[in-house]
Design a protein that fits this description.
The protein is α+β, with helices and mostly antiparallel strands. Helices cover 49% and strands 11% of the residues. It contains 17 helices and twelve strands. α1 packs across α2, α4 runs parallel beside α10 and α13 (285-300) crosses α17. It binds protoporphyrin IX containing FE. InterPro entries: Cyt_P450, Cyt_P450_CS, Cyt_P450_E_grp-I, Cyt_P450_sf. This is Cytochrome P450. Belongs to the cytochrome P450 family.
Length: 459
C-alpha cells in the first residue's frame, strides 16, 4: 500500500484515441447509426462510470450515473464548457459560455420571460399557433411527415413568443432555414473548411445574428415609442430589464447571443419530444385512448369549442405529461453536455486535471435497470407513483443550470397534444421507423416519421 500512487496522480482509465480528432468521429458515427448509447455504454462497461477519452479536440472525462450527475450539476469546481464548435456558432456571450455572477444575471433575465407567472399569459397565443398549424398542415391530408411539421410548429411558436416574428413576417422563413443549418454543425470537429456542415453552420449563424440584431434594434425603438412592452416577447423583455442603478441589464450583444441560444435550445428539443410522442403513441393504443379521454373531459368542461385552453386546463393534463416524461426518458433530446474543470478535481479516487472537459450523458442513467425497471419498455405509469430518485431522470439536466425552458416546453407539448389526439388518428408508414432513429446530435426518426392520418369523428 506504501507504493500505491496517491489518487491525485491518477487519471481515470480509458484511451485517448487519435490526436486532435480523438474519439469524436467514432462517437458521432455511432450516434448517426443509432448506437450512440451503446458506444457510451461499452466504455462504461469497460472502464466504469469515470473514464477518460478525447472529444472535439479536448481531453475529456466521461461521467455517468446518478452520483456523477449530482457532481456535474452541483459542484462549483466545474464551469460550463461547450465544444469549441458550439461556442463559435452561438457566440461568446451566450448563457452557455458564462459562469458565476454573469451566468446568474443572464439566467435571471431569461427566466423573467420563461417563468410560469409570465407563461400563463401566453397559453392563448400558443393555442392559436397550434390550431392554425393543424388546420394548415394536417387537416385534409392522408399522410404527413411528423418531424419537419413539428419543427415548423415549434419554430412558429418560439419565433412569435421570443422575437415577435408573427406568421408572414419578413425574415421568418429565412431564419427557419438558417436555424436548421446551425443545428447541423453544432457537434463537429471545429475546422472551418469548405463543404463542411460546420462552415455552413457558421455562415447561417452569422446571417441569423444579423437578423436578430435588427429585430433587437426595432424592438428598442418600439419600446421607446410605447408600441411594445416588457411582456410583448423575449427580446422586448430583455431590453426592458435594468439593474439597481437603472443601467440596462444585458448588452445588445448579450441579447442577440442569448436569443440565439434560446432558439437553438428550445426549438429542436421540443419538436423532438413531440415527434417521438407521436411515434410511441402509435404503438400504444391503450395509452392513447386514455389520453383522448383526458383531453375530451377537459374540452367538455369548457364552453364552446373555440375557447382557448388556459393555464388551469394544462394542470389537468397529468397523463399527457407522464407520456412526455417517459418519451424524454427513452429518447432524451439532449444526449449529454460538457463542463470544464476549473481546478484539479478528485473524484472516485481519480483526478480530473484542471482545464479538462467533463462530459455527462443522459442515456446510461435513463437505461439503468436498477433505477428504471425494464428500462427498454415504454411505460408512462412509472412516473405515476413517485418521482425518479434525484439526478436519475436528467432529460432537463439539474442544479443551477437545469433547463429554464422546461415550463415553456410543457405548455407547448400539452397544448399540441390536446388538439392532435382529439382531431386525428395516425399509423406509422414505415415499420422500421418504430425502433430506429439516429442522432445528429439530436434524435431524428427514419425518414422524418411519415404517418397515415385520419380525422377522428367528433364525439
Ligand atoms: C423538451 C424540451 C427541452 C429539453 C429536453 C431541454 C433540455 C435541456 C437540458 C438538458 C439543459 C441543460 C444542459 C446542461 O446542463 O448541460 C437545458 C438548458 C437550457 N435550456 Fe432547455 N430543454 C428543452 C426546452 C427548452 C426550451 C423550450 C427553452 C427556451 C424557450 C430552453 C432553454 C434552455 C436554456 C436557455 C438552457 C441553458 C441554461 C443554463 O445554462 O443555465 N430549453 N435544456
Amino acid at each position: 500500500a506504501k507504493n500505491k500512487p496517491r489518487p491525485a496522480n491518477l487519471l481515470p482509465p480509458g484511451s485517448m484515441g487519435l490526436p486532435v480528432i480523438g474519439q469524436s468521429l467514432g462517437l458521432l458515427r455511432a450516434m448517426r447509426s443509432n448506437t450512440g448509447h451503446q458506444w457510451i455504454q461499452d466504455r462504461v462497461d469497460r472502464y466504469g462510470p469515470v473514464s477518460k477519452l478525447s472529444l472535439f479536440g479536448t481531453p475529456t472525462v466521461l461521467l455517468t450515473g446518478p452520483a456523477a450527475n449530482r457532481f456535474v450539476f452541483f459542484s462549483d469546481t466545474l464551469a460550463m464548457q461547450q465544444p469549441r464548435s458550439v461556442t463559435r456558432i452561438l457566440g461568446e456571450r451566450s448563457i452557455s459560455e458564462l459562469s458565476g455572477h454573469d451566468h446568474k444575471r443572464v439566467r435571471g433575465a431569461l427566466y423573467e420571460f420563461l417563468k410560469p407567472d409570465m407563461l400563463r399569459n401566453y397559453v392563448g397565443r400558443i393555442d392559436g399557433e397550434v390550431r392554425r398549424h393543424l388546420d394548415e398542415h394536417w387537416a385534409g391530408r392522408d399522410t404527413v411527415t411528423v418531424m419537419p411539421l413539428m419543427k415548423k410548429l415549434t419554430f412558429g411558436i418560439i419565433s412569435s413568443l421570443l422575437f415577435g416574428l408573427e406568421r408572414g413576417a419578413v425574415g421568418r422563413d429565412a431564419l427557419a432555414g438558417d436555424f436548421a443549418r446551425i443545428a447541423e454543425g453544432m457537434w463537429a470537429v471545429p475546422v472551418d473548411l469548405p463543404l463542411t456542415a460546420f462552415r455552413r453552420s457558421l455562415r447561417s449563424s452569422a446571417r441569423a445574428r444579423r437578423l436578430l440584431a435588427g429585430i433587437t434594434r426595432e424592438a428598442e425603438a418600439k419600446l421607446e415609442r410605447g408600441e411594445a412592452s416588457r411582456s410583448s416577447d423575449l427580446v422586448a423583455c430583455l431590453l426592458s430589464l435594468a439593474d439597481e442603478r437603472g443601467a440596462r441589464l444585458l448588452s445588445e450583444e448579450e441579447i442577440v447571443d442569448n436569443a440565439m441560444v434560446t432558439l437553438v435550445a428550445g426549438n429542436d428539443t421540443s419538436s423532438v419530444l413531440l415527434t417521438f410522442m407521436v411515434r410511441h403513441l402509435a404503438d400504444d393504443p391503450d395509452t392513447l385512448a386514455a389520453m383522448v379521454r383526458e383531453h375530451e373531459e377537459i374540452a367538455e368542461s369548457k364552453g364552446d369549442d373555440g375557447e382557448a385552453l388556459t393555464w388551469e386546463d394544462l394542470a389537468r393534463m397529468k397523463l399527457t405529461w407522464r407520456v412526455a416524461l417517459e418519451t424524454l426518458r427513452l429518447v432524451p433530446p439532449i444526449f449529454g453536455n460538457f463542463r470544464r474543470a476549473t481546478r484539479d478535481i478528485e473524484l472516485d479516487g481519480y483526478v480530473i486535471p484542471r482545464g479538462w472537459q467533463v462530459f455527462w450523458v443522459s442515456s446510461v442513467t435513463h437505461m439503468d435497470a436498477t433505477i428504471f425497471h425494464e428500462p427498454a419498455r415504454f411505460d408512462p405509469s412509472r412516473f405515476e407513483s413517485q418521482a425518479a430518485p434525484p439526478c436519475s431522470f436528467v432529460a432537463f439536466g439539474g442544479g443551477a443550470r437545469i433547463c429554464p425552458g422546461m415550463e415553456f416546453a410543457r405548455v407547448e407539448t400539452l397544448v399540441t397534444m390536446h388538439y392532435l389526439v382529439r382531431r386525428f388518428k395516425w399509423k406509422l408508414c414505415c415499420e422500421e421507423s418504430e425502433n430506429t432513429y439516429l442522432r445528429d446530435p439530436l434524435p431524428s426518426p427514419l425518414n422524418g416519421l411519415p404517418v397515415q392520418i385520419e380525422h377522428r369523428a367528433s364525439p
